[in-house]
Amino acid sequence: MDDQIGLERDSDGYLDQLVGVFDALKPSLSRKATLWINLGDKYADREPLCVPWRFVFRMKEAGFHFHRDIVWSKPDPMPESVKNRPVTSHEYVFMFSLAGTCYYDWFGVREDAKWASDPRNGQRIEYHGKRGSASPGTGQQAFVSIGDKRLLRSVWTITTETLKEEHYAPFPLDLALRAVEAGCAHAVCLTCGLPRERIVESHPLDRSDLPPDHPEYRPSRYDGGKAGSEHAPGPGQRYSEPQQTGWTDCTCGSEKRRGVVLDPFMGSGTTALAARLLGRDCIGIELSESNCAMIERRLAQGSLFSEEVAV
């Protein structure tokens, strides 16, 4: 299609157009919105053009806040016959926001914990601090989280996907699901626009509170009778487990609407499908009529916009 982004004469023109799109979208975004952009690089004269990172700096110059670079690691990359460099098996996903404070559901996007060197009979352990790092005599050691989940990390290993439809570069549904769940609230106030966020509290545990089959379990006090409190742990190690206790709410008393995802480059409609699966609404923009027809077919099993309102 003539004049579409990606047909510029050079990478500078491409970046100008791409950043211009997001800059034009600013008035349509909520104050706590996040932006997730997937970009691969291009090569010229056998050298990378560094398009993804040049895009980051252009976005910062346009006033966006840069939060994180995420490496999408592909176990099944496109084959290459290059002999002067390693085969490319990753792309970047960049996270931006309009303000330094944004909506990010860290609890909802936690990933399965995998501790190959510390299986602990199936218990998942995460250390906050260093063992034995406390001052002598205090008994203050590492504070440990126990559970089957850990915080989402910045390398996402996700297999590529192909479609029966004709689309040359669909990104995986799992990638879109992570971004939508992390960056788009399930419910937003109709009056003030604030999203509902999880209230998560850390519940401290003593050794006697651990599962009996846990290697650190002790049936009674082990510190000579000096038990620590919730705010001042006593000698020995203490454990915690994060638990959701509720949702935040504004003081407006208004009804809530579903969070809305805005996709300016719908392509094959994967982001819209992810939004629907997670109970969010989606507004998409796509120039290609054939792509629009493909999106309608992919979403033919149900309406893109549900009448159900999140509370």
Report on the structure:
- It is a single chain.
- The protein has about 300 residues and is of the alpha+beta class.
- The protein has a domain at about 110-150 and about 200-245.
- The protein is about 20% helix and about 25% strand.
- The protein is built from five helices and 16 strands.
- The protein has helices spanning about 10-25, 50-60, 175-185, 270-275, 290-300, and strands at about 35-40, 45, 45-50, 65-75, 90-95, 110, 125-130, 140-145, 150, 155, 190, 200-205, 235-245, 255, 260-265, 280-285.
- The strands form six sheets. A four-stranded mixed sheet has the order 1-5-4-10, sandwiched between helices. A four-stranded mixed sheet has the order 7-8-13-12, with no helix packed on it. The chain has a two-stranded antiparallel sheet with strand order 2-3.
- A hairpin with a 2-residue loop joins strand 2 (about 45) and strand 3.
- The protein is globular, with a radius of gyration of 24 Å.
- It starts with 10 loop residues before the first helix and ends in a 13-residue tail after the last helix.
- The model is unreliable at about 125-145, about 220-235 and about 305-310 (pLDDT under 50).
